[in-house]
Fold this protein.
Amino acid sequence: MVSERVFYAAISSDGFLSGPDGDMSWAEKYLASGEDYGYVQLVGSSAAILMGRATFDFEIESGVQGPRPLPTYVLTHIPELYGDIQDANIHFTGGDIKQVINLIALAHPGKLFVMGGANVVGQLLEANLIDTMRLFICPEELGQGIKAFTDDTALNNFALTDEKQYESGIIEEIYQRVTI
């Protein structure tokens, strides 16, 4: 049961997913442009979503409410923080990333949409569990915050296969894992 795992993220031109203290407000102006950057198509073609706790917390703080469009797995070591969340499509999980991915694939065969954050993508890259990366390079530098990748070798096992420029100034780069 092989399924594609797609990391989808907006990053600053200097490689940050978020600013200091996890601040994502810098990216909101791009979301307000009216362009969906392929998000609806990706959700429509995916079987489940994997995200980290910080990304999930950001969504809650930003007012994202309502039922999840897909089964959503939140990687966290402290699931008890979310005891009041009553959504059958949200699952809090943790542990070895390979086991987490296997459990998700068994329950929801098909494409896995990985929304972040840096810790999650780092674990997946280390375990060779990302097949495609869709990176949306925003035309601004943050200078500090949380880097998308912990080192400069993150893309070593990937080839740039497509690139697209949006009116907002964002450049989408699509990378595919290179099989050796």
Q: What stands out?
A: The chain has a mean pLDDT of 89. The longest strand covers residues 5-12.
